[in-house]
Amino acid sequence: MPELLNALNAQLDVHAHDVQLVDLATEQEWTGAQVKRAVADFRENFEAHNIQKGDVVLLALGNTAWLTIIEQALWEIGAIAHPISETTGVVEIIGEFEDYQYAAALVSDDIAARLTKQTVLLPEAFKTYLYKGHFYRFDGEPKRFIADNVEEQSALILNTSGTTGKPKRVGISFKKILLATRAVTWSQNITAEDHSLIVMPLFHINAQIVSTVTTRINGGQLIVAPKFSASHFWEIVAKYQITWLSVVPTIINILLQNEKSRQQFTALRDHIHLQYVRSASFSLPAPLLADFEQTFGVRVQEGYGMTESTTVVSINPLDNAKIGSVGPVVDTDIAIYGDNGVTYDSHVKGEIVLRGPRVLEAYMDPKDGILVDGYFRTGDIGYFDEDGYLYVIGRVKEIINYGGEKVAPAKVEALISQIDGVVETAVVGLPDDMYGERVTAVLHLATENIVEVNAIIEKIQDHMANELAKYERPTAYYVTGDFPRNPTGKVLRADLIERIWGRHQNGTN
């Protein structure tokens, strides 16, 4: 059995009579012994459904404490968990099975209701102790992924967006997860006394490993919220004695702006023991960081990492932080790649590149150009200062970063172009104080008639609602007669953003 699973089970035994897991949606609690029993129950059910070593099981369940139980059950079989957003479209889910021959899926009520008219996935009864799920078997021979060494066996597959809109699949081994938990434990001093709250999506690397597995492997208590709620946040933090959690800058901003949240904090101040929040996914403006720390008396720790690096590669130390930086290197070889190749020199700006035992060497689906001189190319632009602190200042690619969710413009553009009356479209990210960037569609339409224009936009919005996850959908639409282009005809997105941003500030569409 992989060392990771031995460590997880050892903590369940040590804390057999202590509450280790809490699901806020159902108010259900599990002791270590109850988690172990639930894992065994799921494992037996998966085996009864012929789930075998190397099989991939797609999980679209939303934020639930059951997910970590289900994943451990699959891992003990040697199967691979692939969590995805429960808002993923049915077409995309079916595509995953047709393209990759996964073995099965376990999905939420909402997705099950939308899977009724397809024939690729066959429903099978699935019920365990205290849990009834929607299990679907792939109508075909599954493809299995089996490594020679048990530590190198993939435990997770996570999607990360590409510029084409088709997700890039990252296989993450037991060894990488274990190394990642050690890096997080060291950089944040995680212990069995910690109580961690999850408000981030569990289909992301942050909630999966930084919060879930790291907390569990240290014997801490894990509290899972179905989603972030500003109006209940401090109540939860006080009730469950939360000591830390991972957030994105959007959450920090909302907590500051939500009057009920501020009032609740004031009322519960003496019962709150939150030591710090860990902020990631995109840059936190310095004034916002200072305002949060001053208002709530809670420190903010900024870090940098990604799915391809199996979480954190740099983090600001709480006792010696530099605002605006993502801190010194953690357990990874980080360099800067520029015109003169790879360098470690300070104040040289270029693409941030990585290598090390936790860093991706290849996606599951072949992709050229991801490495340079043996380093993984992150697509982020940054530099080191003279003290070895890393600063991230931009992105090479055109991916839109909406509150930590990555949105591929090409995917959204392709869907918009399917609507009659759309001549051309470009999807860009406009600056947004709350979410970092917001998805914005710029349209060249076949008509200028305002009634017809509004009708086309309504059709686009309906189409987006059916085909895209909520975070991928444009929140604003601008109509233009032309696009700025380079000599080869490619849309100059930076120029377009500048033009549309001017219109936004003037209040014109």
From TrEMBL:
It comes from Weissella soli. The lineage of its organism: Bacteria, Bacillati, Bacillota, Bacilli, Lactobacillales. The keyword ATP-binding does not apply. GO terms for molecular function: medium-chain fatty acid-CoA ligase activity. Belongs to the ATP-dependent AMP-binding enzyme family. It comes from the Bacteria. Coiled coil: none annotated. Pfam families: AMP-binding, AMP-binding_C. The keyword Ligase applies. PANTHER family: ACYL-COA SYNTHETASE, MEDIUM-CHAIN ACYL-COA LIGASE ACSF2, MITOCHONDRIAL. SUPFAM superfamilies: Acetyl-CoA synthetase-like (SSF56801). Keywords: Ligase. This is Acyl-CoA synthetase (AMP-forming)/AMP-acid ligase II. GO terms for biological process: fatty acid metabolic process. InterPro entries: AMP-bd_C, AMP-bd_C_sf, AMP-binding_CS, AMP-dep_synth/lig_dom, ANL_N_sf.
